[in-house]
Amino acid sequence: MLGCGASVERDESGGHECDLERRLDYQIFHLRDEVARFEIELGAYLASPSGRFETWHAEHERRRRGGS
Fold this sequence. Notes:
Elements: H1 20-30, H2 32-47, H3 49-64
C-alpha cells in the first residue's frame, strides 16, 4: 500500500512519489472514525459540569492575562 492511496502498477510503484497534500488527505481519511469519536466525546465532556467549569476557567484566565 502506498502512503497516498494512489493506484499504481506494481512495476511502477518504485518510481511513484506521493504528493504531500494527497498523502495527508489519505491519512485523515483513515482517521475519520477516530476524529468523529473524539468530537463526540469532547462535546459530551464540555457539556458536563467539569467541562463547563474548565471552559469558564480557561476564559477567565485568558481575560485575566489580557487576552482578547
